[in-house]
Amino acid sequence: MNKPSNRLFDVHAHLGDYWDDVELGDRGQVAALRAAQKTGRIAISIVSACESLLSATRLPGDTEKTMRQRLLAGNEKLLRMCIQEPSLYMLAVLDPQRPDSFEQCRKLLNHPRVLGVKLHPTRHYYRIADHIQGICDFLKAAPKRVLLMHGINDGWSDPEPVIHIASQYPEISFILAHLGRTNPSMLTVDLIRQYHAPNVYVDTSAMRDSGVLQKAVSIMGSDKILFGTDFPFYLPKDILPLILNSGIRPDQQTQILAANAQQLFNLK
């Protein structure tokens, strides 16, 4: 059997100065991500902006205006970073409650360093069921049609409405994050099987249990699972051993760690 790939592709990372009112300091910066890439053999990281994800979260000293400004400003700042760093691509954070967010993402999706959109209903306080059709209609006409969503069934980010609608939009690739972090742990995978959704993927960001990965591979196949870390909250050293020691075959590991992302995002 072949060994797993030596060039890995992390589809779920973040950069930023804060998460809630906690200052991330150096660990949320490009230099820390670069170090994590080196130790984890990661060739490409696909990042989103913490600043944009916190545009509905009040931080110390915030006004309503400064809080709302973070959504667009964070995406623009992150794009400038990605342009300077060959190993970084990004997902533009979209808040479907805001027309200016759709307008910004429409423009950003034309940039070669922007590979799709990121949704975080829990952070932006909307029910994905109320907005997923409008988001899909928007992406259907966009130059890039990849959507990654925080996928935990907490009342905001429930995976079922996304999986249910996916078959109506075969041109869009849907990635539901945080494999195993739903309740029950296999909810997302079981729903993908139930709805026969070939254009829905899961990622391993913040994964805690290699047994969940084994079950997911047996149910949906290794070609629909993507390696993600959730940097800087989780590091490659937290996620990689769960994949490498999961008992799945080396060729399946290679699909998860590299080949699937390369194909989905057309990365070299």
Strand content: 15-25%
Q: In one word, what is the shape?
A: globular
- From the N-terminal CA to the C-terminal CA, the straight-line distance is 23 Å
**CATH homologous superfamily placement:** Metal-dependent hydrolases
Rounded mean pLDDT is: 96
Poorly predicted runs of 5 or more residues? none
CATH class: Alpha Beta
CATH topology name, in short, is: TIM Barrel
Order of helices and strands: EEEHEHHEHEHHEHEHEHEHH
Q: Count the beta strands.
A: 10
- Residues in helix, %: 40-55%
Pairing-aware structural class of the strands and helices? alpha/beta
Please tally the helical runs, counting DSSP H or I stretches of 4 or more residues: 11
Main sheet summary: 8 strands, parallel
Radius of gyration: 17 Å
CATH architecture: Alpha-Beta Barrel
Structure description:
With 268 residues, this protein is of the alpha/beta class. The chain has one domain: Metal-dependent hydrolases (TIM Barrel), CATH 3.20.20.140. Helices cover 43% and strands 17% of the residues. It is built from eleven helices and ten strands. It has helices at 30-40, 50-53, 64-84, 99-108, 121-124, 128-140, 159-166, 187-195, 210-220, 236-244, 250-265, and strands at 8-15, 18-19, 22-23, 42-49, 88-93, 114-119, 146-149, 173-176, 200-203, 225-226. The strands form two sheets. Strands 1-4-5-6-7-8-9-10 form an eight-stranded parallel β-sheet, sandwiched between helices. It has a two-stranded antiparallel sheet with strand order 2-3. The model has no long low-confidence stretch (mean pLDDT 96).
